[in-house]
């Protein structure tokens, strides 16, 4: 890992798809101007998180949304984790997060693996009624870090991060759209504990709350150190949240508390 | 799982071993009187956490400490997670947590698996210079819950809780002695995130800080719900921390956010 500037784009996703794409584009350009090497968009940045809209506004990989984002990413000479949008592939739909390189090339895609089928106090949703799950977390080697990508609900599943650990991930990008209810209860808790237990930087990008939509996202996009500190928190603002990630900090944490080296894989293999 | 009252004993462990055993005994009796069915002592409840003392004061399973605790546990008709003490077995030493049943019988023992070899800002320690690690986390079926036991640094290792998950654990008891430094940074974070990601009750028992000893424990023994809420926190007090654990709450959390059922073991097996 090398030191680099990361930028998380947060705004309240609105019904007008064009307006969201304009916001995303402007923030990618701003990130490039500020010298960020990696920009992360939230889950469902195109349309408010709602299954009917996600079905209606689904696009293919070569559709207008990704084409536009690839172009601006190349112009800004930046790397982009393109949050997530509803991807149509033949008859199936996926909640897909594309990673774009500085020439506009697609470096990889994470299709959300764990689908959000819940009956919370404030919300019931069956993501699996629309989406087909992905089969493997995405790990990409960038020039400045090894990056792991997972989407929202995937954050709750330890196996995803065990996979990242084995792959040597140093920074995890989490496009998400936690709800107000689960956000208050678990957003910082889970981002911080993943950072601590796997000794990685964690960047979670969430839309700002839009109280005019049925599903109100939590906001609070955050950048977390490997010691579990909240380096930046966007609260409910529309903002490009930037932080310099220092390779030295990651190395220091792994040295002073070498929990990764203390794994007992020899024993774990016997535990089944 | 059935509803039951849990009691965590917290006091500042002092140099006088007899005084600590008197405190432990009095708190077990108090727990019994209050109707608690399970009492949990902290890590290294006999002597302050310091390798020279742990070597010097090590005892065998049939030594005076466990003999005394078995007697009082039987008299109080309670279950006991006997924190941890330095156990001598032949030539080897272990950081051992015995679980005692209401007839004074030994139901199992968890020998700390992950040894604390660290160089923190405020503290350097090499637990492996004294202790031999255990090889398997302990899971015990009690009449009112399936209990998992792990000790302190084990809390940082996801594999321990994956083991608990596969074994159907509902309540995890964590005798610990987090330091002030790691306690402030990570104690509640890790207890709460384990509770949330495995949807279990978590009870972490730590000695109260004793600023007259070189190693100052964090205190803050805590009882956490499966939703990650801190039900009780002992702060720095000398106290028996009690809470009723409701089976219904565990069932409700697992129903409204069925993350355990959403595990994709079929995929994980392919990830290696």
Report low-confidence residues of chain A grouped into runs of 5 or more.
none
* Strand proportion of chain A: 25-35%
- Count the strands of chain A? 15
Name the assembly state: homodimer
The number of distinct helices of chain A, counting runs of at least 4 residues, comes to 7
Question: What key attributes describe this structure?
Answer:
alpha/beta; six-stranded mixed sheet; homodimer; 272 residues; seven-stranded mixed sheet
Q: Could you characterize what this model shows?
A:
2 copies of one chain form a homodimer. By secondary structure, chain A is α/β, with parallel strands linked by helices. Helix content of chain A is 30%, strand content 26%. The first copy, chain A, is built from 7 helices and 15 strands. The longest helix of chain A has 19 residues. The radius of gyration of chain A is 18 Å and the shape is globular. The two termini of chain A are 33 Å apart. The model of chain A has no long low-confidence stretch (mean pLDDT 97). At the A-B interface, β7, α4, α5 and α7 of A face β7, α4, α5 and α7 of B.
Summarize the structure.
Two copies of one chain form a homodimer. Chain A has 272 residues and is α/β, with parallel strands linked by helices.
List the helices and strands and how they pair.
The structure is a homodimer of 272-residue chains.
Chain A: E1 4-10, H1 17-33, E2 38-40, H2 51-56, H3 64-76, E3 79-81, E4 85-89, E5 92-100, E6 106-111, E7 117-119, E8 124-126, E9 138-141, E10 146-149, H4 158-167, E11 171-175, H5 180-198, E12 201-205, E13 222-224, E14 230-233, E15 239-245, H6 247-256, H7 265-271
Parallel strand pairs in A: 1-2, 2-3, 10-11, 11-12
Antiparallel strand pairs in A: 1-15, 3-5, 4-5, 5-6, 7-8, 9-10, 12-13, 13-14
Helix pairs in contact in A: 1-3
């Amino acid at each position: 890992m090398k030191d680099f500037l990361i930028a998380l784009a947060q705004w309240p996703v609105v019904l007008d798809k064009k307006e969201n794409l304009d916001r995303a584009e402007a923030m990618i350009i701003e990130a490039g101007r500020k010298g960020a090497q990696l920009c992360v968009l939230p889950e469902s940045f195109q349309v408010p998180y709602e299954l009917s809209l996600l079905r209606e506004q689904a696009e293919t990989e070569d559709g207008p949304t990704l084409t536009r984002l690839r172009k601006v990413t190349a112009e800004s000479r930046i790397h982009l984790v393109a949050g997530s949008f509803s991807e149509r592939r033949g008859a199936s739909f996926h909640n897909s997060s594309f990673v774009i390189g500085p020439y506009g090339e697609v470096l990889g895609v994470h299709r959300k693996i764990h689908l959000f089928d819940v009956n919370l106090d404030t919300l019931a949703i069956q993501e699996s009624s629309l989406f087909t799950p992905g089969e493997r977390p995405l790990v990409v080697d960038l020039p400045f870090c090894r990056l792991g990508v997972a989407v929202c609900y995937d954050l709750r599943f330890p196996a995803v991060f065990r996979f990242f650990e084995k792959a040597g991930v140093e920074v995890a990008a989490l496009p998400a759209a936690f709800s107000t209810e689960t956000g208050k209860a678990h957003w910082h808790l889970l981002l911080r504990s993943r950072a601590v237990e796997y000794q990685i930087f964690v960047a979670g990008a969430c839309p700002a709350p839009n109280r005019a939509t049925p599903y109100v996202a939590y906001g609070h996009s955050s950048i977390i150190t490997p010691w579990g500190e909240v380096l930046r928190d966007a609260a409910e603002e529309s903002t490009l949240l930037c932080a310099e990630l220092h390779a030295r900090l990651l190395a220091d944490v792994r040295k002073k508390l070498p929990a990764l080296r203390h794994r007992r894989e020899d024993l774990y293999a016997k535990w089944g």
